[in-house]
Design goal:
This protein is α+β, with helices and mostly antiparallel strands. Helix content is 46%, strand content 9%. Strands 4-5-3-6 form a 4-stranded antiparallel β-sheet. A two-stranded antiparallel ribbon has the order 1-2. Strand 1 and strand 2 form a beta hairpin. Helix 2 crosses helix 5, helix 11 packs across helix 12 and helix 18 runs parallel beside helix 20. 33% of the residues are buried.
C-alpha cells in the first residue's frame, strides 16, 4: 500500500500545473506562422531561448493534430499543451528552467491549402485592419461589437443598425437590419476586396456574379420530378462563429478574423421588439415573436448588410458540398438560390424522392439550418414546376398569370397614366416597372420584347416619374 508521500510523488502531474503565462506564450509561438514542424520548433526555441529535447516531438504531435485544418484558436492550442502528457512531464522536470525570453505576439497570414489561391489582402494584426478600413484601432473594436454592447444600449444614436419588420408567410416576422453609413462603408470594402475574391460553390446561384435565377432554374427544366425546399430564417441561422471560421480559413489570424466577423454580424437589441409588437398584425403568433427575439439576440448575419448574401453563400459551402454529393448519388441535380433549394431528376430519382427529402432535411439540420416543411413541394410533370418565380416544366419561362398581370399593368399605364397603377406607393415607379420588364427579358427575351414596347409608350414625364 502506498504511503501518502509515495502517492503524492507517483502522480506529479496532478499537483504541479504549467504556468498559464508560459502556456499562453507557447501557444502564441505555435500559432504565429507556418504550421510545419521545423517552423514551430524555431519559434518555440526563440520564445524559450533554448532548444529543449521535448520541443520537436511536441511540434510533431501538434502538426499531426491541427496542420490539415483551419488554424486553431489560441485557447485550443493552450488546451492541447495542457493535455499533452509529454509536455506535462517536461514541465515537471524542467519547469523552473523554462523562461519566456521573447513574446511572439504578431502572427502571419496562414490560409488552408485550398485557400492559398484566394486573392485576399494580407492583414496580420488589429492595427493593420484598422488602417485598411480607415479607422482608429479603438474604433474598430467599437464597430465590431464583439461584446454585444450595442444590444444593451437603449440610445438609438449609438447603435450601428436601424431596424424594421416585415411580415412573412405563415404569420411569422422578418427583421430587416440596415447598417448605418460608416459601418456600411466598411462592409462594402470587406465585400469587394475580400469576399468577392473567395469562390462560392458551383451549386450556389444567388448573389453570385454571372449567375441568376435563370441559371438556378435551368438545370431542372424538362425533368420528371422537381423537389423544392425552403430554409427557415436563412441569415439569422448563420452565427458569428461560422463567419469567423471562414475568415480564419482565408488565413487571417484569430484576432483579425474575430474583428472581421464582428463587423459583418449583429445582435439585435431586445427592447426593439416591444415597440414593434404594437404595430404587428394580430394574426402574428406571439410565440413566433418570442422565437424571433431570441434568435436575433445572438450575433448573426443581418439581413440588410451588403456582406450578408456573400457570407451566407460562403458559410453554406459545406452544406452545398454534402447536398451535391447526396443528389449525385441519387441521380439528381442540385442548385441553391439563397434559401431556395432545388433538386430534380428522372425516373430513378422520382422513385426515391420522398426518402431523399428526409435525408436532405437531416443534413441541413446537422449543418445548423432548418427546413420550412410547409413550403416544401414535390412537383411532377403533371403540375407546374415553379422555382423562385419561374416555371421549369419544359423550358424556363415566366408564369402566364404573372406575364398577363404585368402586361395589363403596363397597358393601363399607357392609357390612364402611371399614377393610376402605383397602388403600392413605390417611390420610383418607373424604375420598379423597368426592373420587372428586365426580369421577363432575361427569362424569355421574346415576351420581354413585347413588354418593352408597351413600357416605352408610357408617358412618364407627364406624371413626374422621370429617372434621376
Amino acid at each position: 500500500m502506498l504511503t501518502q508521500d509515495a502517492t503524492r510523488w507517483s502522480t506529479p502531474l496532478q499537483h504541479k500545473k504549467p504556468n498559464p503565462a508560459l502556456l499562453d506564450a507557447l501557444a502564441r509561438s505555435i500559432l504565429a506562422g507556418e504550421a510545419s514542424v521545423d517552423a514551430i520548433v524555431a519559434r518555440i526555441v526563440r520564445t524559450l531561448g533554448r532548444r529543449w529535447r521535448w520541443i520537436q516531438p511536441l511540434a510533431q504531435r501538434y502538426v499531426e493534430r491541427f496542420a490539415h485544418g483551419i488554424r486553431p484558436r489560441r485557447q485550443e492550442a493552450v488546451a492541447f499543451l495542457r493535455d499533452d502528457d509529454a509536455f506535462q512531464r517536461a514541465w515537471f522536470k524542467q519547469g523552473s528552467q523554462l523562461q519566456i525570453k521573447n513574446w511572439l505576439i504578431s502572427q502571419e497570414m496562414l490560409p488552408v491549402a485550398k485557400a492559398a489561391s484566394w486573392q485576399v489582402p494580407s492583414i496580420a494584426s488589429e492595427g493593420e485592419l484598422a488602417g485598411w478600413l480607415g479607422v482608429s484601432a479603438g474604433k474598430i473594436e467599437w464597430f465590431a461589437n464583439l461584446k454585444r454592447l450595442g444590444a444593451r444600449c437603449r440610445d438609438g444614436k449609438l447603435r450601428h443598425y436601424s431596424y424594421r419588420t416585415l411580415m412573412k408567410d405563415f404569420a411569422s416576422v422578418r427583421l430587416i437590419e440596415s447598417p448605418k453609413p460608416r459601418l456600411k462603408e466598411m462592409q462594402r470594402k470587406i465585400l469587394t476586396e475580400i469576399l468577392d475574391n473567395i469562390p462560392a460553390h458551383p451549386a450556389a446561384h444567388g448573389f453570385v456574379k454571372g449567375r441568376s435565377i435563370k441559371t438556378f432554374a435551368a438545370p431542372h427544366a424538362g425533368k420528371r420530378v422537381v423537389l423544392r425546399m425552403d430554409l427557415r430564417d436563412f441569415f439569422p441561422s448563420i452565427r458569428i462563429g461560422r463567419v469567423q471560421a471562414l475568415f480564419r480559413t482565408a488565413g487571417y489570424p484569430e484576432r483579425v478574423a474575430d474583428l472581421l466577423g464582428g463587423l459583418c454580424t449583429n445582435a439585435a437589441p431586445r427592447d426593439i421588439w416591444s415597440e414593434m409588437l404594437k404595430n404587428v398584425p394580430c394574426t402574428v403568433d406571439p410565440l413566433a415573436i418570442h422565437e424571433a427575439r431570441h434568435r436575433y439576440a445572438w450575433m448573426h448575419l443581418p439581413q440588410g448588410a451588403p456582406t450578408s448574401p456573400a457570407l451566407a453563400n460562403l458559410c453554406a459551402y459545406r452544406v452545398d458540398c454534402r447536398l451535391s454529393g447526396l443528389a449525385h448519388a441519387a441521380g439528381a441535380v442540385y442548385t441553391r438560390y439563397a434559401d431556395d433549394l432545388a433538386f430534380s431528376g428522372d425516373e430513378a430519382f422520382e422513385r426515391c424522392v420522398e426518402r431523399f427529402a428526409a435525408h436532405a432535411a437531416a443534413i441541413l439540420l446537422e449543418e445548423g439550418f432548418e427546413v420550412h416543411h410547409r413550403k416544401m413541394r414535390i412537383m411532377r410533370r403533371g403540375v407546374r414546376q415553379y422555382l423562385a418565380g419561374v416555371v421549369a416544366n419544359e423550358h424556363i419561362n415566366v408564369a402566364r398569370a404573372d406575364f398577363d398581370r404585368l402586361k395589363a399593368m403596363l397597358t393601363n399605364c399607357v392609357r390612364h397614366g402611371p399614377s393610376s397603377q402605383n397602388r403600392e406607393g413605390h417611390p420610383n415607379f418607373q424604375q420598379h416597372l423597368a426592373g420587372r420588364v428586365a426580369f421577363v427579358e432575361m427569362i424569355n427575351p421574346q415576351k420581354g420584347a413585347r413588354l418593352r414596347q408597351i413600357f416605352e409608350q408610357i408617358p412618364w414625364r407627364d406624371e413626374f416619374y422621370e429617372l434621376s
